[in-house]
Every structure is written in structure tokens, then in C-alpha cells.
Task: structure prediction
Amino acid sequence: MSFRFVSTGSYVPENVVTNDDLAQFLDTSDEWITQRVGIKERHISQGESAADMAIRAAQNALDAAGLKGEDIDLIIAATLTADHRCPGVAATVQNAIGAHGIAFDMSAACSGFIFALETAAGYFERNTCTRALVIGAEQMSRILDWTDRGTCVIFGDGAGAAILEKGDNLIASKLFTRGGNEVIDIFDVTVETPFYHPEEKWMPHVFMNGQETFKFAVNTITTDIPALLEEAGLTDDDISYYVLHQANVRILQFAVKRLKSNPDKFPMNIDRIGNTSAASVPILLDELNRAGKLERGKLFVLSAFGGGLTGATAVVRW
Ligand code: UT7
Result:
């Protein structure tokens, strides 16, 4: 036993930042970002935290299902960017919507939402919750180095959520972590205490070896998806959509080619939303759902990769 999807929701801040806006203060261009990454614009918070966005996405998912906060007894929020360490995003959402039970955050970078789904499945298996709210929420803009053109142009802010009930719609999954900070490292602020005076001081920022991350992403997607389908006795013909982490349009194009699949099965919103880390997969899922593209009973693949390094792939039934 695992879960079934009841509803989805998402939210992105109103403020749209185009590539030309970035070129006002960075040595970059619309042409470079469009060609190398596939992003035209992203939504950037003007004061809304990851928790604020998570609350909007959660409310959206509750409204779609005709449920109230009190109907939820488990909240898991995948995030890297909570502005309060405690209470975290999940606890803040719980308080805002009037839910009860268990609420906690987890950090598995861009793979976080799928890690959170897998975690929720465990609660359903053990009958320790009745209805879960799983969220991916990120205010990436608060941890970016806005002078580093190699990283700040690719990210955006937003939140996505799904409400789950007990069911058997998690068909197969594969999660992994290859711990290390050589490829992606997200620094927190350096803290000086009366007992420690660090030589180096830094502000929060994202270090990313773009090309190594790119190789890791393509390798993860093109190895884990076919392996998981085979393990589940499925083929590409059984899958209606591949809902992949929106990190770079070229990564998505590689995936289509290597999986020898139909590009129409790979929905994309990276051009409008950018890379929203843990929020990427649930925002895209919500867009598909609201567009009426997810037919009950059909199978689709969720797959993400990112810092940690982490990778997560799941075959789910809608
Ligand atoms: O969600 C976490 C997972 N993250 C990812 O999956 C990201 C994966 N990696 C990527 O998407 C790409 O590697 C990037 C978009 C980050 C970078 O693209 P790239 O084609 O790998 O570029 P590069 O790092 O090899 O840089 C090529 C050139 C360099 O200039 P030189 O040294 O050749 O003169 C960079 O300085 O492009 C330059 N460059 C830029 N130029 C204009 C890097 N960023 C920019 C920019 N605008 N924003």
C-alpha cells in the first residue's frame, strides 16, 4: 500500500523577471540563456518566503479537492530555502491552514518532492496518517549569488503541492544519494562566535559545476527511468507523461532522444518558470492536472536530480 493522488496545487510569485531584466545588471543575454538553458522568464519573490508560497500552493490543492486544512494529518515540505529554521515550512503551513498531526521539512535539493512522496508512502503503509499534503517550495532567489551569471540566471521561485490518500498508485521508485560537494554546494552564512573566528566568511550562495551537473542529470534520467520501467515490467508505451525536473531544456531534449520516446510526452514549463528546485516537479504536475491532461488510471514518470547529489525517479498511476 502506498498512496493515491487526490489533488494538486501550485503558486508562483507575481513578479516576472525576463532575461533582458537580468542583462541590465549581469554580463548575459536573452540569446545565451534561451539557447543554453531554454528559460525566457522566471518568477522572483519580492518578500514572499518559501512558506508563504507553500501556503498558497497548499490552499490551492485543498480547494481543488474540496477539503479543509483540518482534513490533513501529515505535511512534508521539501525545501532548501526556509527563512526560519524553526518552525519550518511544513509546520508554518500546518499552522496557517489549521491542519494537525505531523509536519516536517526535508532537504534533498531538486529531488526533494519525490523523496517526500516516498516518505509519505511509508506513513500510509504503516497506517499512521489518513491524508497527506506533500509540498515542494523554494525561494531560490534568497540563496543565489546575483553576481554569478553561471547560476543565478537558471533559478526561479515557487511552490507546488499534492494531497494524497491511502492507495496503491506508487508503482515503483528508485531514490539515491551520492554524497559529496564537488559538483553542487549550497553555502549557508558563516557564523562567528566568541569561540570561533573563521578566516573565510561567506553569504549564502550556490556553487555549481554546470557541466558536471549536466552530465549527472542526463545520466540519472537516462539510466534510472529505463531501469525502473523494466523492473516494473513496463515500456515507454505504457507511460503517458514524463514529468521531469525542469533544469535545462537541453537535458530534457537529451532525455527524449536517449529514451527514444515521443517529445509530446515530456511537458515543459522551464521557459516560463525556470528551475525551482524542489518545487519544479509539483508545479509541472499541477499545470498538467489543471490542463486536464492527467487521466485517471494512466501511468506517468516523475524524475528529478540535484544537489547532494541526489536522484529520484518514480512510476505513478494518476
Ligand atoms: O537543479 C540543479 C541541477 N542543475 C542543473 O541541472 C544545471 C545543469 N547545467 C546547466 O544547465 C548548464 O551547465 C549551465 C546552464 C549551468 C551552463 O551552461 P554551459 O553550456 O554548461 O556553459 P558553461 O558553464 O560551459 O560556460 C560556457 C561559457 C563560459 O564562457 P567562456 O569561459 O567559454 O568564455 C561562461 O562564462 O558561457 C559563459 N556563461 C554565460 N554567458 C552568458 C555562463 N553563464 C552565462 C550567462 N550568460 N548567464
